[in-house]
Design a protein that fits this description.
Blueprint (H helix, E strand, L loop, with lengths): L7 H13 L5 H8 L3 H6 L3 H11 L1 H4 L6 H12 L3 H71 L6 H13 L4 H44 L24
Protein name: F-box domain-containing protein
Keywords: Coiled coil
InterPro entries: F-box-like_dom_sf
Length: about 240
């Protein structure tokens, strides 16, 4: 006995069981509709699409008790429309909602990436400023060390020309060398600690940026334009077809 010998009642029951058990989806019904005239006629049975409506759009299929009047009017209108047309309408609305959700996810991911890049730029500027400050302190410290050595050398015999230069160098220094050297050493220490803190924050932000960029790529990635139905129906992409 071949499949073509089965009566329509048995085929209809098989399709109903498939729709009720989630083994049969709207794409399968669309494929069956173009397989043969007989299956095309059976796949249009209202009970099948009503089952798919209740299964794939449960929150929209079951009305709330607070709007009984408007719900009864909607039910009367829906009874005049084939369940397949209702399914198609809700399916298209679902596509729009999924597309909007994807756009929001992309915008949010782009905002996180831009904020992270701004933070990295701020940290780079802070590290550059601290580096310049540390460089200036190191240069001043080097000059003070030269003044200190020159003040010590004044008490030691040396040629008059060298003695004059060292005396001039000492006279140009208007601050207490020992006190200023201590302050500069402390400033260098603080600069190094601050730069280390900035580098630590920079590395963390860099990791965040990599994660945010990966999340942005995932949010933008949709190889099939009709893949937005995965939220209600998980089927192999090879079987996805446009609902007609």
């Amino acid at each position: 006995m071949s499949a073509s010998d089965l009566p329509d009642e048995l085929w209809a029951r098989v399709l109903e069981l498939g729709a009720a058990s989630s083994a049969l989806g709207f794409r399968d019904l669309c494929c069956l509709a173009i397989a043969s005239r007989r299956l095309g006629r059976l796949s249009l049975h209202p009970a099948l699409w009503s089952a798919l409506l209740s299964r794939d759009f449960p929150s929209q299929s079951q009305p709330s008790s607070s709007s009984s009047t408007s719900t009864s009017q909607q039910q009367q209108q829906q009874q005049q429309v084939h369940p397949k047309s209702l399914y198609k309408t809700k399916f298209e609305r679902h596509k729009v909602r999924i597309a909007e959700a994807r756009r929001r996810a992309v915008f949010e991911a782009e905002a996180r990436v831009l904020a992270c890049r701004r933070r990295l730029a701020e940290l780079e500027e802070s590290m550059r400023a601290e580096g310049e400050r540390m460089k200036a302190a190191a240069q001043e410290l080097d000059n003070l060390e030269r003044v200190r050595r020159a003040s010590v050398a004044l008490n030691v015999w040396q040629p008059q020309v060298v003695h004059g230069r060292q005396k001039q160098l000492v006279q140009q220094c208007t601050v207490s060398v020992d006190s200023r050297v201590s302050d500069l050493n402390m400033e260098l220490k603080v600069c190094k600690q601050q730069i280390a803190t900035y580098k630590n924050s920079y590395n963390k932000e860099k990791h965040k940026l990599n994660d945010y960029e990966e999340a942005l790529k995932r949010a933008k990635y949709h190889p099939l334009q009709d893949s937005h139905t995965s939220g209600i129906i998980n089927e192999p992409r090879a079987k996805r077809k446009k609902l007609k």
